[in-house]
Amino acid sequence: MSDTATPPYGLTQESAEADRAALARTWANAKGLLGWLSVTTHQAIGRRYIVTAFVFLLLGGIEALMMRIQLAKPENTFLAPARYNQIFTMHGTTMMFLFAVPVMEGMAVYLVPIMVGTRNVAFPRLNNFGYWMYLFGGIFLYVMALTGAAPDAGWFSYVPLAGPQFSTGKGVDTWAQMITFTEISALCVAVEIIVTVLRMRAPGMSLNRLPLYVWSMLIQAFMVVFAMPAVMIASTVMLLNDRTIGTHFVNPWEGGDPLLYQHVFWFFGHPEVYIIFVPALGFISAILEANSRRSIFGYSAVVLSQVATGFIAFGLWVHHMFATGLPQIGEAYFTAASMMIAVTSGVQIFCWLATMWTGRLRMTAAIHFVFGFIFIFVLGGLTGVMLSSVPLDLQSHDTYFVVAHFHYVLIGGALFPLFGAFHHWFSKITGRMIDEALGKLSFWLLFIGFNVTFFPMHILGLNGMTRRIYTYSADLGWGSANLIATAGAFLIALGGIVFIVNALTSMRGPVNAGEDPWDASTLEWAVPSPPPNYNFVYPPVVSSLTPLWTDPALRTVVTGLRTDRREVLVTGVTEAEPQFRYILPGSSIWPFLAAAGIMIGFCGSVFAFSWYFVASVLGGIGFVGWFWPRRPVEVAP
Amino acid sequence: MTSARTLDVSDLPPYEISNRAPLWWGQLFMAIIEGCLFCMLLAMYFYARLSVDVWPPPGVPPLKTLMPTLALIPLILSAGGSYIASEGAKKANRRLMLQGLCANIALAAVFLILRFIEWRTFNFSWQSDIHGTFVWSILFLHTFDVIADLLMTAVLIVLLAVGRYGPKQRAGVHVDSVLWYFLVLIWFPLYVAIYWGPHLMRAQ
Amino acid sequence: MNNVIVSGLLLWIAPGAFGPQSALDPAANSARIIAGLMRDFTILLGIIFLIVIGVAVASLMRRHRGIEQEPLERAHLPSPETENRTGRIVGAASVLTTVILLALIAISASAGKAISDRAIPANALTIEVTGNQWWWYVRYLNDDASQIIVTANEIHVPVGRPVMIRGTSQDVIHSFWIPDLSGKRDLIPSRITTEWFQAERPGRFRGQCAEFCGLQHAHMAVWVVAEDEASFEAWRRAQLQDAVEPATPSQQVGQQVFLSTACAMCHSIRGTSAHGQVAPDLTHLASRITIAAGTLPNNRGNLAGWISDPQTIKPGNHMATIPLRSDQLQPLLDYLEILR
């Protein structure tokens, strides 16, 4: 399947070389600034998502450090109350909307097409468009925040506090509309992933041979499709309109209901955390499989558990509202569902433990992060079981106990696997090996720092420290635990710095990682590192769950795809039998123009509703240009 | 790394205009996403309605059902136009495509005109009360989507008329029908909820 | 007892483990039931955690096993016997997890029933609490209108009698939370939420608003004083009285300052012409432990600072800064000090 050494049976060295050269030409990105704006290859767009998300991670981290400095001692005056409220809002918003979801999308955009054996996502221009929407949304939020319109009502902006009567200024409006940008971006990627995975897999890659990471992304993409519309309703339709054009969705003084906002927001908000978490589970499977020299134990159990997780995640949202006095019978159901989702997570963990036990573990830096995941996520999951109980939640809700819980599950469950993934796929994306020793050092700093920061918060919460307070008095006894937590936060920062240094210095190394430094099993390790834009000269045909661990003599590749246009193969949904060829577009500036037009309109819409029409017109022009036929319109066979 | 066997796909067609095409799937998921939006709005509408005793609120008479019911006729017929166009797209029949799309756009325009006439009789706005907020929001969102689809259809008609179309544009005509069927279908539960709901749930 | 052990072990993290606002130091039935549940959950789930980590670490230790290790290289799969055995273990672990969670659901439900409103005994004292940015309006309900008490930011309850809190909000969503006594309950505008508890020992218990409510969410505390029936009755009778009349000339001047400046527009003092409804009732201000919703201890110096410059102490709060000369402020303080 690799395109070095001997060409496939029936082809000569010269024809293989000619094919490779033609593909390189056909799939080359356009040059210059215009070319950079017009890129439609998934590797470039995936890298952009990842780098941009990392920048937002750093910004969110700086916001966190500022909060921790303010809270390090009682009655501190480092941050004024208004500023503190803005910063905790920006921290949550940045991490949830501008880092966590986009980075997972970016990794998927990069990895999924290669893993399923094709050359690009199903809708390359939509991919480009989605990235610009994400970037513009993030820039919009920060420009507004730095010019006096920072949102300050929390990352979920409960009404009536976030409503027109109690939050003046444009901060909350900015928050609400930024969500529209990032949500559109996530939906674009989700649709691409679904269609790519279901329609463009390598021949022979039936659904029961789908790599576990691809399953995770498929499930996550479906969750995005069903969850994201709800946040658009909550933020843009309900909150923004109540604030700007006088609707009464959630205005309690005109018949609206503040709890309706909570229901709709959390209907999105709970699946959202699983949207962040499920891809990370895919990372764990991929990293473990490569580094324990056996295929993951219990493939079907893992897949079914994740599917179940995806479904059940939509039935949990009221556990964010246990303190609002809802009917007890409803609460009982949500307690049961919230606890039972621990079973689906547990089954996967048991399968991974079984893999580690019966495999032959290789202690790479990535595996260190897998261990970190197990420790931190399981602890967080168990406090989650506590929070599922209504009586326990009534004490812990809105305290630092919950802050501890969700950082354990989000950082343990998503960030540690992500860092493992960075170390695991660094060689594939850059062609160089990341330094393993520095990787392990960054792991230990992050692991110790994380636990020092967040474990004391469980105790703080039970000892009465509520969330979102900019200070506290000395006689409450919270001072020393907070000081310790702040020290831990700086340790985390140090770990992050070591990682960045590692990544940057490793980038200076020679491009000598080779295709498959880990002796892994899935298709992305069958292309050069870094992969060419077309991934495979001859896309593979797959006959097992672990294609790269099969006998090379029995492997088959696809020939007959044209090399003078960007062509891929469409295959059947369940059995992946070849059906027809599909021509993908090349570079195009129109997705950028459409996104820019919509951005102008959406930015204006926080000031006046009529700017939506500007967005529609400019976006419409962009879409017309996007779909306008280029000559020749006929298609050669 | 070593010799491998080959699977030659050069005899497969270079595109397909059917519900197996990636673009059709993409459009289907767009419709599903819009559907989620409308379903959530419907759920919210009932949440609001069930939290009060009187609906519509005092001072707002129940919405008249004649106009919107009449408007269903051009709406359903317009889906027929969409169907003819999409069949023409599959058969590469330009005349059928043009006829279908023009019928679709004309009937949809009639539907919209009837809707705009109806709106002029509303004595409440989205600012009046919770009922006004919901009714106007649902109607606005559905209408916005209908107009957007009409504009897309118009562009397709222009391309067909000037003869500048190939398989990609035929695929566009084919998937346009997916969106249109969705907009017609989703209107039914919304229509029943907004116009008939207050009558059917009078006894609350 | 176990709470003490657990907290004691962690004393190095939180030296003030039992500050005045702790869910781990229950003083009422609700908090006690919840603390017991927390202990049970922590022990059970803690054991599960240790087992999972133990297996993970053990698998790490095993990775260099020599001859006994099955050759994975060619097939990348252990033998069918190993896979089957592993499958049975994983299956058993999954079933066990499910059973444990079902048990936890059951004990949680039973605790929930015990603290739910339906379990409240008949002779409950009903107190209405209304959240405001950033103080608590408190009203003791009674069928007899002459027995209704209005106060702010401090609640007294009798030990051994059930207390029902009926909550709502004037503005944004707040949350009423006294961790030593019970779980929290959100205060939501245009809705009424309820919860109840029964204090089991006397003491002073601090609570604070637990739903982010704006600029001074951090400074919206409330004190609950649980006392024996006799003391509670004495407090109640005192609260029913109108304000103490000023006796000395200075106090009279002070009352005049209060009534003639903006103070009376927001605050009320029963028995005078001050009927302001948008700020705490001050009829018995001097009987309270703290001022400014738990922000400062109630003494003359703090009161002087608060009146002179509320915006420095609690920036953004809705109390106006009224410039007072010292020959107005001192008599005002003299007057306020007599309002027991």
Describe the structure.
The complex is a heterotrimer of chains A (637), B (204) and C (340). Chain A has helices at 13-26, 32-37, 42-71, 81-115, 124-146, 171-199, 212-244, 258-291, 299-312, 328-358, 365-388, 390-396, 400-430, 436-462, 479-507, 590-605, 611-627; strands at 540-541, 556-559, 567-571, 578-583. Chain A has 637 residues and is mainly alpha-helical. In chain A, helix 5 (124-146) runs antiparallel to helix 6. The longest helix of chain A is centred in the N-terminal third of the chain and has 35 residues, at 81-115. Chain A is globular. The model of chain A has no long low-confidence stretch (mean pLDDT 95). Chain B has a domain at 65-200: Up-down Bundle (Four Helix Bundle (Hemerythrin (Met), subunit A)). By secondary structure, chain C is α+β, with helices and mostly antiparallel strands. Chain C has 9 helices and 12 strands. Chain C has helices spanning 2-9, 29-61, 80-115, 229-240, 249-260, 263-266, 300-308, 310-313, 326-337; strands at residues 125-132, 135-140, 149-152, 154-158, 162-169, 174-176, 185-187, 193-198, 203-208, 221-227, 290-291, 296-297. In chain C, the strands form 4 sheets. Chain C has a 5-stranded mixed sheet with strand order 3-2-1-5-8. In chain C, strands 4-10-9 form a 3-stranded mixed sheet, with helices on one face. Chain C has a two-stranded antiparallel ribbon with strand order 6-7. The longest helix of chain C is centred in the N-terminal third of the chain and has 36 residues, at 80-115. The radius of gyration of chain C is 28 Å and the shape is elongated. The relative contact order of chain C is 0.11. The model of chain C is unreliable at 1-5 and 11-17 (pLDDT under 50). The chains are: A mainly alpha (637), B mainly alpha (204), C alpha+beta (340). At the A-C interface, helix 4, helix 10, helix 11, helix 12 and helix 14 of A face helix 2, helix 3, strand 8 and strand 9 of C.
